[in-house]
Amino acid sequence: MKPIQRLLFVCGQNKLRSPTAERLFSNRGGLIVASAGIDREADVPVTPDLVAASDLIFVMEKSHEDRLKRRFKKYLSGVKVVCLNIPDQYDFMDPALIKILLQANLSASGRSGGKSLRAGGRHSPPASQKPRFGGLLTFTRRTFKMKRKDWLFDHVASKLAEAANAKHQHHQERFEWWKNRREQVMAQIREEGLEIDESIALEYSHPKRRDWEQGAQVTVRDDLRKDLNECLKKLAHHTELVNDYQGWHQVLSANPEARFSLDYQDWLFFFGRGDVVPSNDLHR
């Protein structure tokens, strides 16, 4: 049995390139794949535990490699770091990005220090730097001739149910976070956010004005009103998705052995990081 390889893909914000790589290779046998961002404000930031647990780390840019080695030097013992030289110009699951990743030389140098390899370069690496994963990270060339609208991904209902449950839990957590945030904003409004427009005072200097008839006007500070509106929108958004994923989990769990062919939009709905609306129906 071949040993399991633990791969970590790193970009800047962990929004586009490294999540695409994670999704692309996560279902390959013999691999455990994760992704993270080198920026401290990344969706999933790089941590010492992620670095130390990895066998191979693929960074998208040389600057990512430099920052990784500078911040996590003591955790990189025995860990290979490979730079793929993929610029930040692709969307999540961009077909062009997928093609580059699949054609990249996803291996580390046999030398102790490792060496950065150019993704999709014209020159073949020396024998000591040939890929070590055999056919694990290969893809048929014919795949790239398919248009995205024609892609289909075969999944069993039980796996989709697990994915729907994970999404349900995620949006439930986000709902609770925004609920707490709303309470914080409301408390701030009550403490310091109210402004009093005492237009009644104008009556003394401008007797003909009738604004005073409305009495004192109480308004909420603009920045706090904006924060409160954002909270309400997020709560409505996550409430809808909690209900959607809960329903999908119930339906799919009732038919665990059924198989479905998902188009790319359905796949993103269940497994993607963004909020995607599924197509009208799943293909049985």
Describe the protein.
By secondary structure, the protein is of the alpha/beta class. It has 8 helices and 8 strands, in the order βαβαβαβαβαβαβαβα. Helix 5 (157-193) runs antiparallel to helix 7.
Q: What portion of the residues fall into strands of 2 or more residues?
A: 5-15%
Helix content: 40-55%
Number of strands: 8
Cα distance spanning the termini: 35 Å
Residue runs with pLDDT of under 50 for 5 or more positions = 107-146, 198-205
Compute the gyration radius: what is it?
26 Å
Query: For the residues shown, what is the average pLDDT?
Result: 75
Largest sheet properties: 4 strands, parallel
Total DSSP helices? 8
Helix/strand-derived category reads: alpha/beta
- Encode the helix/strand succession as letters: EHEHEHEHEHEHEHEH
Give the strand order of the largest sheet, numbering strands 1, 2, ... along the chain. Answer: 2-1-3-4
Indicate the topology.
Elements: E1 5-11, H1 17-25, E2 31-37, H2 48-52, E3 56-59, H3 62-71, E4 80-83, H4 95-103, E5 153-156, H5 157-193, E6 194-197, H6 202-205, E7 217-220, H7 222-253, E8 259-262, H8 264-271
Helix pairs in contact: 5-7
Keywords:
single chain; 284 residues; alpha/beta; four-stranded parallel sheet; two-stranded antiparallel ribbon; 8 strands; globular
Kindly summarize this structure in a few lines.
The chain has 284 residues and is α/β, with parallel strands linked by helices. The protein has helices at residues 17-25, 48-52, 62-71, 95-103, 157-193, 202-205, 222-253, 264-271, and strands spanning 5-11, 31-37, 56-59, 80-83, 153-156, 194-197, 217-220, 259-262.
